[in-house]
Amino acid sequence: MAFTLPELPYSKTAFGDTISEDTFDYHYGKHHKAYVDKTNAALEKTGLSSPKLSEVILHAKSQGDNGLFNNSAQVWNHSFYWECLSPDGGKPSGELKDALDRDFGSVDDFKKKFKEEATGHFASGWAWLVMDGDKLAITSFHDADTPVAHQGKKPVFTLDVWEHAYYLDYQNARPDYIDALLDDAINWDFVAKNLDGKGVERADQDG
Ligand SMILES: [Fe+2]
To answer: Which domains does the chain have, with CATH numbers?
Structure first.
């Protein structure tokens, strides 16, 4: 058994100029695929038998195996990220809107704070909306680090802020990439599902 590159839930041309086909070719087809291949190549040394991806991430962290941690965490992070996107965009509604209103004041205030975190994060990493206890919180993690490895921070929504996520379409203008996605390209229905605290499972896979 081996981990696989998950199918994208949309066409690589579905987002037009917001996320170009070129970006999908490199970001999904080369970067994400390389993380899958490197995770599989390192699996044999772990002695784990048919582990789930989330189990590999936790094992690598506990063993201090930075190479395996970085690659396996990036497989999961990217799998979750693609599910957070939708060419149909829209706005948060229902239970998700109520939760954003409760914990950030309004949907617009949530977007403003999330953008501040995402643009202010130094160098490579990921901006996150997580469930922390019974409240939503905004945070970010460096490089490949992931809420999968942080007990008590349950993943709800993410944006990739590595340069490889936006450089082809926005060059160095990370704030423009963040605005474009938050305004037009988020799958808020997927985000809303993760209020149940089971976000890790939605990008997990069997090895
Ligand atoms: Fe990425």
So the answer is: 20-207 (3.55.40.20)
